[in-house]
Amino acid sequence: MASLRRRPPVWFAAALLWLASAAHAQAQPEQIDTIKGVYAKLYSCWRPPPASRANPIDITVVVSFNREGAILGQPRITYETENAGEDDRIAYRIAVMETLQRCSPLPFTEGLGGAVAGRPFAVTFRTRKRPPKPEEKRAWLIQKIL
Question: pLDDT tens for residues 57-102?
Fold first, then answer.
């Protein structure tokens, strides 16, 4: 006698398909399709050195990417806080290079990759506290009644 095999219900196949697509979506990083997204991704990878190792400074790096989001050429440090010590500068330079290694290659969409390939990005990492801007006095708005 031949045994009858039951087919799995349709909902079971649909659930397997959904799980497989969810796992695939988690494995692929979210693609970046705007320049604002490039900066947001780089800032999300930023890990400044701890305050016990280096005093906070601001540092700017100029970096370019190819179509696939890999670093193109050599990143260049173009600005560091003026009164920073040499040890602080070195610690922050290392942190910037580690950030670029951690983040690259960036997952560009095809359109953004073509648009930004080879173009320089100036990325400023700010860790110093900024003094609050003084409140502007608007004397010209005050009406004087004579």
Answer: 999 999 999 999 999 999 999 999 998 999 999 999 999 999 999 9
Q: For residue 74, give Cα distances in angstroms to 3, 70, 83, 86.
A: 68, 11, 25, 21
Query: pTM for the full model?
Result: 0.68
As a CATH number, domain 30-128 is 3.30.1150.10
List phi, psi (to 5°) of 94: -65, -45
Residue 79 host element (H or E) = strand 71-80
Measured in whole angstroms, the distance separating CA 98 from the mean position of its chain's CA atoms is 13
Question: What is the domain partition of the chain in residue ranges?
Answer: 30-128
